[in-house]
């Protein structure tokens, strides 16, 4: 039996021929990193390879690391194996990894979304024989509405709160979701304030991306100044002492999980906006078809249900693999978000 081009082991996704890992979750010698979220870009690797725009992101998060930046579609060869990075559309500088050896092509998506959010490089399907896909939202219940409708609702919510003399507190992860929200907020309504973790990351990203002006919330920020405006904060800030100076306030969360009302209740959120940085059910299926692949490996998400549907309903050679990636915020990211800066 021929050795698979990529295998899953206790450290991550491994290419034996090249002796390279992709998004390894334990320290390895050489690792290709798809994007800057803490569950995919771990500390401790001897050498990192990632997209050029992701270099400042992971340096900000991981410190003094040895890292090489690559451009989209730039090929690089390691021990006869050809690699290249392609836009994943998940968050800023997120990549899919194409791996080719002796005519066989595999693609690992990392995390991805198919809607062009106007900030991340738009997703591009990549032809392959074997496709390793996330399925965070791999259920038919998850079908996103166009983001312009969601942002219209968010800005209308903010404006209504302002008219009622309340501050709008909108939760989103400090890397990716926060900047997507920032990019599409209507600054004519008022001022955008930010939690320190979001402000710190946004400062890093301003080197390569354009965002509206923001004001960092500090200990010296007066409640009267914030009133009626909007505050972007990470989920970890909810329920802490930090948020008290926003009163009177209304809270909201922007997440694909807001599809289910129970998720909003569990998080004690006043309002939920369904806005995800991952592909929905149709996005997953359309992407698999666009790759022209024969084999599919489903990871991190509704893997069993999704792979069974691919096998029984669509005829793919589909299976699952376990990873240590989580859509929800990781312990490392929680610590970063708790730094108010």
From TrEMBL:
Q: Does the keyword Thylakoid apply?
A: no
Q: Does the keyword Lyase apply?
A: no
**SUPFAM superfamilies recorded for this chain?**
Metallo-hydrolase/oxidoreductase
Keywords from UniProt, A to Z, are: Exonuclease, Hydrolase, Ligase, Nuclease
MF (Gene Ontology): exonuclease activity; ligase activity; RNA endonuclease activity
Q: What protein is this chain from?
A: Ligase-associated DNA damage response exonuclease
What species is given as this protein's source?
Answer: Marixanthomonas spongiae
